[in-house]
Every structure is written in C-alpha cells, then in structure tokens.
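User: Predict the structure for this protein chain, please.
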Amino acid sequence: MIVAAATVILLIAFVNRLYTRGGPYFARPETIVDQVGPNKHETRDALVLLPKVRRLLPRGARVTCFEPGNADTMPDFFAAVGQLPQQIVVSPNGVLPEYVIAIRKPLDNSAYRVIAEFPEGRLYKAGP
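Assistant: Here is the predicted structure, written as structure tokens:
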C-alpha cells in the first residue's frame, strides 16, 4: 500500500511538472529551452533564427547578434557564439561588424541593409 501510494504521489507530481512547463508533450521540442518553464525563454528566438541565417553567412564573417533596444544584449550574443562556429562573433557593445543579426525588432541604423527577414528577426549587412 505504501509503495502504491508513493507511486501515485510521484506520478501526480510528474504530470504537474509536465503541465506547468507547457507542450508539446509528445513531439520533439524545436529548441533546448522550449520546456524550461511556462513562459517563453529569452533566447528561444535567437536559437530558432541562428540556424536559418548560418547558411547565409560566409565563413569567417564578423557578425553580432542582439535585440535592438534591449539593454541586456548578452543572452543573444552567447547563443550566437555557440551557434555560429564558422563565423567570428563579436560583442554588440563595440563597433558593429559587417553582419548584424537583429532578434525580434528591426535595427535602426542606416549603415546596414536587410538581407533576409524571418519571423524571429532579420539579418543585416553593412554597406549600400
């Protein structure tokens, strides 16, 4: 009886934890942060966007990644460091490089032009 009761209690706790983290329950999540908590993780859009723009960037290109207007630029920057091993990822707090990956919001800089647009953000290149 004690083992059965403990098993039911653990099962209820497990189902509650799955429910609070959100779905999909029977499908593979798109990113590693999809089931971290009930709310959308701050780096999710960057983790979805970076593989899409990776094929558009030349090897060895200097690139940065951030959300324009957000004071905390480091989460998206560190996601780019991990997702773009063929490129040189530089800090968004210095001089902007040849390519900029803007997460969610558009970049307000006339020195850059849009190369590609995705639901999660845009890829920009310096120059006319």
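The chain has a mean pLDDT of 89.
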